[in-house]
Structures are given as structure tokens and as C-alpha cells.
Specification:
about 325 residues; alpha/beta; eight-stranded parallel β-barrel; about 15% strand; globular
Length: about 325
């Protein structure tokens, strides 16, 4: 069963890398078909599983090579009921896909983990709707019921925690946290931010974190930012207010384009990996408690290598 569920090592400090933009890498670099951006569909056959294994190996190798921890984020961002139905999955098939994805992460941990590079398995949860647009916002109760099924599957696997990625609104975040608490799993909430550093609903990051903490008695292990370029949120986190200490992770986009511009783009904007690493180093020097570092849309192993190089140096005394 789980190895770190009761003592997440990233909470004790030290840098933990994650992977980059899974879906954009698979589509634009590996030329794979991912209907609805659903990477979990690759778990259907050996060829797809091998593609995922190859993808994660690149990042795990970077972590090991630098003596850094690593969060193995399962490819299950779309593996929830509404998206599963669109893709033709029954509830049983969807549960099996979620379980198999975590099993793949377990195999990678067995292959790569060392005492210097602890590897934490995270069951990835995505939003019910789009990661850029909140659409129709569920109530907290609706969100808890909706996400309980997937989180319940993770409860019976080797997953050490649940990480909810690209969350666009406060009620859904609260529902996910409550579902994870009921299932007995540590939970992390990662919010999508727009170019102004706010959630797509217009709430500030401070408002979102404070609201979720208040509604859930500070249940989340920590919070993250993802699907935004570092320049989009640097001003938002340039403060010493207490809520910033709840922020422990960043998975930024390679591109400084807005979500609307990215949606219209025909080609992948992978930004500048060297500059990307420098921006992470600047962030770490300002907030040394932020230690879970990876990428989102447009990023690949080059960006994570730069993060590892720059942020490892920045963390040295």
C-alpha cells in the first residue's frame, strides 16, 4: 500500500521536482492522439503504457541525477466521471484506469527511488469542467460527491496523496478537500491563474486559499499554482502575508500567452527553458518554503532540467 501517506517527505523540506506538461508533450512532441487531453487513455494498451513510462522516466532520471525528491503525478487528470463518459468509459473501466495509472507510478518508484531521491505518488484529480474556464460552478456539496468516486479509488491504491490540478474555483476546491478528508488521503490544491494572477472566477489567490482553509479547517497539506507563466503571478506572491506560507508548489506554463491565446494557438509555445529556470530561482530566493517544482503546458524535460540546476544552486547555504 502507500509508503508516505502518513508523513509526506516534501513537508520536511528539500526540493521535490514534478514532471512537465504531460499532455502537451505527448501531443506535440510524441505525436500521440489524446482526445479531450485525456492521457489516461494510453493505459489501454502496451504501446500507450510504454509511452507514459518513457515520459516519466525522463523526469525521474533528472531528479535522481540531482539528488532531489520527485512527485510522481499519475496521468489521471481527466479520469473523472464526466470526461470518462465522453470517452466511452464505464464506471468500472474508469476505476480500473485510475488504479492502473497509480500502479504504473509505483513501478517507476521501485525503479528510480533512492535515499537521496524520495518519490511520492500522487493521484491526480482534475476539474469537472475545463482547466481554463470554470463554466457552471458546482456547490461545495456537489463537488464533494462528484470527486469522491475517483478519490475513493485512490484510497485503495499506493497513492500517498491526492493533488487536484488546474482548479478554477473555490467551491470545487472545497469539495475536493472534503472528499479527500473523508477518504483519509492527504490533499493538495493547485489553482489555475490568469495573467492578472487571479483565478478564472476573479478571486485572488489569497482569497481562494483563505476560503478553502476556513471551510476545511486547513485540511490541505499545501497549495500550488499551475497553468500560468511565472510573470503572471510574481506580483501576487510578492508579499509576506501568512497565506503565502501555505503555498508550497509551482507548475508554471512555458508560455507567457493568456489561456485564450493558447487555446487559439496552432503550434506549441515552449518558451525559453533557460529563462524559465532563472524565474524559478528568483521565486525560490523570495520564498524558500516553496519546494515542489515542475511544469505545466508547454514544458518538457528541458525546463525541468533548468529548474533542477538553478533551484538546487539557489537552495545551497
Amino acid at each position: 500500500m502507500s509508503k508516505y501517506r502518513d508523513h509526506l517527505p516534501q513537508l520536511a523540506g528539500g526540493i521535490f521536482l514534478t514532471d512537465g506538461g504531460l499532455e502537451t508533450t505527448l501531443i506535440f512532441h510524441d505525436k500521440l492522439e489524446l482526445p479531450h487531453f485525456a492521457a489516461f487513455q494510453l493505459m489501454k494498451d502496451g504501446t500507450g503504457i510504454e509511452a507514459l513510462h518513457k515520459y516519466y522516466c525522463a523526469y525521474a532520471s533528472i531528479a535522481c541525477g540531482n539528488g532531489l525528491g520527485f512527485v510522481l503525478e499519475s496521468p489521471t487528470w481527466r479520469a473523472n466521471p464526466d470526461w470518462g463518459e465522453k470517452l466511452g468509459y464505464s464506471n468500472a473501466a474508469l476505476a480500473d484506469a485510475n488504479g492502473s495509472a497509480v500502479a504504473l507510478m509505483r513501478g517507476l518508484r521501485e525503479q528510480f527511488e533512492t535515499p537521496q531521491s524520495p518519490m511520492v505518488i500522487s493521484g491526480c484529480v482534475g476539474p469537472r469542467g475545463d482547466g481554463y474556464d470554470p463554466g457552471k460552478v458546482m456547490s461545495e456539496t456537489e463537488a464533494e460527491a462528484y470527486h469522491s468516486e475517483q478519490i475513493g479509488v485512490f484510497r485503495g491504491t499506493d497513492a500517498d496523496l491526492v493533488t487536484a490540478i488546474t482548479i478554477t474555483n473555490i467551491p470545487e476546491a472545497i469539495g475536493i478537500v472534503r472528499a479527500a478528508r473523508t477518504k483519509g488521503l492527504p490533499v493538495v490544491i493547485s489553482f489555475t491563474l490568469e495573467t492578472d494572477g487571479c483565478l478564472p472566477t476573479g478571486h485572488s489567490l489569497e482569497e481562494a486559499i483563505d476560503a478553502v482553509d476556513t471551510a476545511t479547517e486547513k485540511t490541505p497539506a499545501y497549495y500550488m499554482i499551475n497553468c500560468a507563466h511565472p510573470t503572471h503571478f510574481d506580483a501576487a506572491v510578492a508579499t509576506n502575508r501568512p497565506w503565502v506560507k501555505r503555498l508550497r508548489g509551482v507548475r508554471a506554463n512555458a508560455s507567457s500567452l493568456s489561456h485564450a491565446e493558447l487555446n487559439e494557438a496552432l503550434d506549441l509555445d515552449d518558451g525559453n527553458p533557460l529563462e524559465f529556470g532563472v524565474q524559478y530561482g528568483d521565486l525560490l530566493r523570495l520564498h524558500s518554503h516553496i519546494n515542489v517544482l515542475g511544469g505545466c503546458c508547454g514544458t518538457d524535460h528541458r525546463h525541468i532540467e533548468e529548474i533542477a540546476r538553478v533551484c538546487k544552486a539557489a537552495s545551497q547555504p
